[in-house]
From TrEMBL:
<keyword id="KW-0547">Nucleotide-binding</keyword>
<keyword id="KW-0067">ATP-binding</keyword>
<dbReference type="GO" id="GO:0005737">
    <property type="term" value="C:cytoplasm"/>
</dbReference>
<comment type="similarity">
    <text>Belongs to the PurS family.</text>
</comment>
<protein>
    <recommendedName>
        <fullName>Phosphoribosylformylglycinamidine synthase subunit PurS</fullName>
        <ecNumber>6.3.5.3</ecNumber>
    </recommendedName>
</protein>
<keyword id="KW-0436">Ligase</keyword>
<comment type="function">
    <text>Part of the phosphoribosylformylglycinamidine synthase complex involved in the purines biosynthetic pathway. Catalyzes the ATP-dependent conversion of formylglycinamide ribonucleotide (FGAR) and glutamine to yield formylglycinamidine ribonucleotide (FGAM) and glutamate. The FGAM synthase complex is composed of three subunits. PurQ produces an ammonia molecule by converting glutamine to glutamate. PurL transfers the ammonia molecule to FGAR to form FGAM in an ATP-dependent manner.</text>
</comment>
<dbReference type="GO" id="GO:0004642">
    <property type="term" value="F:phosphoribosylformylglycinamidine synthase activity"/>
</dbReference>
<dbReference type="GO" id="GO:0005524">
    <property type="term" value="F:ATP binding"/>
</dbReference>
<comment type="pathway">
    <text>Purine metabolism; IMP biosynthesis via de novo pathway; 5-amino-1-(5-phospho-D-ribosyl)imidazole from N(2)-formyl-N(1)-(5-phospho-D-ribosyl)glycinamide: step 1/2.</text>
</comment>
<keyword id="KW-0963">Cytoplasm</keyword>
<dbReference type="Pfam" id="PF02700">
    <property type="entry name" value="PurS"/>
</dbReference>
<dbReference type="InterPro" id="IPR036604">
    <property type="entry name" value="PurS-like_sf"/>
</dbReference>
<comment type="subunit">
    <text>Part of the FGAM synthase complex composed of 1 PurL, 1 PurQ and 2 PurS subunits.</text>
</comment>
<keyword id="KW-0658">Purine biosynthesis</keyword>
<dbReference type="InterPro" id="IPR003850">
    <property type="entry name" value="PurS"/>
</dbReference>
<dbReference type="GO" id="GO:0006189">
    <property type="term" value="P:'de novo' IMP biosynthetic process"/>
</dbReference>
Length: 76
């Protein structure tokens, strides 16, 4: 089984990387972009018997900083 974890900064948390990308896009002429939020995607190959709860525990303990980030788990 595989799991894909999407990690993003929570709403209201400043995203300097996203702002840098937005600014760069504007400088390249893409002036219709008004905001960018940047995150990360983590693909996990899981052994038989692994559960979504196992992945959530991984996120809580290592993969996401739950103080400032939120995550979504997608089993693929």
């Amino acid at each position: 089984m595989k799991a894909r974890v999407h990690v993003m900064l929570k709403n209201g948390v400043l995203d300097p990387q996203g702002e840098a990308v937005r600014h760069a896009l504007g400088a390249m002429g893409f002036d219709k972009v008004t905001g960018v939020r940047q995150g990360k995607v983590i693909d996990l190959d899981l052994a038989d018997g692994a559960t979504e709860a196992d992945v959530a525990e991984m996120c809580e303990k290592l993969l996401a900083n739950t103080v400032i980030e939120r995550y979504e788990i997608e089993l693929v």
